[in-house]
Design a protein that fits this description.
about 240 residues; alpha/beta; Rossmann fold; 2 domains; two-stranded parallel ribbon; about 15% strand; binds NADP nicotinamide-adenine-dinucleotide phosphate; 3-oxoacyl-[acyl-carrier-protein] reductase MabA
Length: about 240
C-alpha cells in the first residue's frame, strides 16, 4: 500500500487490515508510517512500516523484497502515492512535470513490475491504482491530469497482461476527497479549507465532500474475492456522474 502514511492511503491500509490482510504501510518517510501501523496493530491487525520512494527503482526493489520476507509474498498492491505540482501550462516547469509523472506513473509501473512476479507465482493477485476525476481534464493540472489519465491506460493493460494469471487490475478515480492534499490546494488559492469543502459539496450531486473512507470502501471491494470477475475498470467515486 503506497503513500499510506496519511490521507486516502492510511484509510485504505486500515480498511484492508480490518478485512484480514497483513499490510505494508509504505511511504517516503518510514517514521511517518508509525501512526497507521500502530492503529492497525492496536486493532488486532498486522502491519509493518516501509520507507521507500516509489519513483526510485532500487528503493522499490528493496522494499518489495523486504515485504516478501517480513509479511509474505505481496499479492495485493494499491498504487496510491501521489503529489501535486499544480500550475498553468505556461508557468509549469519541467521539474513539476517530471516529478508528478515520476511519482504517479513511474512509481505505479515500478511497484507493479516488482510485485507482479509474486502474484503470478501465486496465480492470484489484485492491483488497484489511484486515478482521479482530474484525468478528464482540470485547469492548472496538465501534469497531474496526464498522470491520472495514464493510470487508467496502465490499469487496463495490466488487466489484459495479468488476467491469465488470476490477477485483476482496476482503478479508482476519486473526486474531491478531504485530505492534506486538498487542504494544501485550498491553502495555495487562499481559501479556508472549510469554505473550500462547502464549495465542493455544493457542486456535488450528493452534496458532500468525499472522505478517505469512501475510497477505502471501493478498494476493499476490488481487493475482495467477490470482485474476481471485475478487471480493467475505472470506478469514479465522486458523489455523482463525471461525464
Ligand atoms: P496525501 O494526503 O498528500 O498523501 C499522499 C501520500 O503519498 C503522502 O503520505 C506522501 O508522502 C506520499 N508520497 C508522495 N510521494 C511519494 C513517493 N515518491 N513515494 C512514496 N510515497 C510518496 O494525498 P491523498 O489526498 O491521500 O491522495 C492519495 C492518492 O489519491 C493520490 O494518488 C492522489 O493523487 C489521489 N487522489 C486524491 C484526491 C483528493 O481529493 N484528495 C482526488 C483524486 C485522487 P509525504 O507526506 O512524505 O509527501
Amino acid at each position: 500500500m503506497t503513500g499510506a502514511a496519511r490521507g486516502i492511503g492510511a484509510a485504505v491500509a486500515k480498511r484492508l487490515a480490518a478485512d484480514g490482510l497483513a499490510v505494508a504501510v509504505l511511504d517516503l518517510d518510514e517514521t511517518a508510517c508509525t501512526e497507521a501501523v500502530t492503529a492497525i496493530t492496536d486493532a488486532g491487525g498486522s502491519a509493518i512500516a516501509v520507507g521507500a520512494d516509489v519513483s526510485d527503482e532500487a528503493a522499490v526493489a528493496a522494499a518489495v523484497d523486504r515485504v516478501a520476507t517480513e509479511l509474505g509474498a505481496p499479492t495485493v498492491l494499491i498504487n496510491n502515492a501521489g503529489i501535486l505540482r499544480d500550475n498553468l501550462l505556461f508557468k509549469m516547469s519541467v521539474d513539476d512535470w517530471d516529478k508528478v509523472l515520476g511519482v504517479h506513473l513511474r512509481g505505479a509501473f515500478l511497484m507493479s513490475r516488482a510485485t507482479q512476479k509474486h502474484m503470478v507465482d501465486a496465480r492470484w493477485g489484485r492491483i488497484v491504482n489511484l486515478s482521479s476525476t482530474s484525468a478528464l481534464g482540470n485547469r492548472g493540472q496538465a501534469n497531474y491530469s496526464a498522470a491520472k489519465a495514464g493510470m487508467q491506460g496502465f490499469t487496463k493493460t495490466l488487466a489484459i497482461e495479468l488476467g491469465p494469471f488470476g490477477v485483476t487490475a482496476n482503478a479508482i478515480a476519486p473526486g474531491f476527497i478531504e485530505t492534506d492534499m486538498t487542504a494544501a490546494t485550498a491553502a495555495r488559492i487562499g481559501v479556508p479549507f472549510e469554505e473550500f469543502i462547502a464549495a465542493r459539496a455544493a457542486e456535488t450531486p450528493v452534496r458532500r465532500g468525499g472522505t478517505p473512507a469512501d475510497i477505502a470502501n471501493a478498494a476493499s471491494f476490488f481487493v475482495g474475492e467477490a470482485a474476481g470477475f471485475v478487471s480493467g475498470q475505472v470506478l469514479y467515486v465522486a458523489g455523482g456522474p463525471t461525464d
